[in-house]
Amino acid sequence: MELLCPAGNIPAVKKAIEHGADAVYVGLKDDTNARHFAGLNFTDSKLQRASQYVHDHGKDLHVAINTFAHPDGWRRWQYAIDSAAGNGADALILADMACLDYAASTYPDLDIHLSVQASATNAGAIRFYQQQYGVKRVVLPRVLSIHQVKQLARDTDVDLEVFAFGSLCIMAEGRCYLSSYLTGQSPNTVGACSPAAFVRWQDTEQGLESRLNGVLIDRYQADEKAGYPTLCKGRFCVDGNRYHALEEPTSLNTLSVLPELYRAGVKSVKIEGRQRSPAYVEQVARVWRQAIDRCVANPEAFDIAPDWAHSLDSLSEGVQTSLGAYHRKWQ
Question: Which residues are annotated as a binding site for [4Fe-4S] cluster?
């Protein structure tokens, strides 16, 4: 079972590798990836440096090119694929069918992983991408229960990758337009949910307010930890009650089902967070390296070390974690 860690810059790449990642995933410095934020990601030269470092340590580099090509921007996505292939990527993480087709036909020896943005949630969809584009691995959306993940693992011979830790997304990835509803921009189009240019913070007599394109998303009291203003995790008044109407600001943590994922044959567990700091990557990679090694050695006796839980809780959104859809009985 592979530990796949995020990196938004060279220091994060090094922290991930130094603390146990088997592979690192990164994005290029433009809107061809779904974490297109200021100060993040890799130019061609930095991608080459990252590739050199990862390969010098015997690990793999995955490059996410997982937004959907704009009608007038195909050349950027084509260039991103060429750049990743030319600078040492071991795998491309793709969602757009044109990108999948171009990569499969131009670089047939390069592994293609189907991005979570493609929202392949069933064996038929996975088979389609395997037959059409030769995908080697599918990143499953964070909307499947543990039962559904196991079922998919039985029904396909394509490697499966699941999110193990990090922010939750309540929508089927690639299908969410909430950010676009307020700003005109979304992960699908510009690679960013709630783009920073639309975010405003304001101290008021009622508390610290977060707004997205002028719309009040949340208001925090002095003792509350403020979250990034995404529309799905805001607090809104519904029938006179103010609460998280769509989703709690909490993080996914699958440590407790790690043996089940391992026994199901899940190939890779993925840490979310290319926008996170190198210190975050270091801490999460260290915990998950230890957890995977313990699980693989003896899954029947696997237990969660108290310091792992403490460490991950301290890094979690809202300082709390959840199994997310893995344990949902409803869909």
Answer: 169, 176, 193, 232
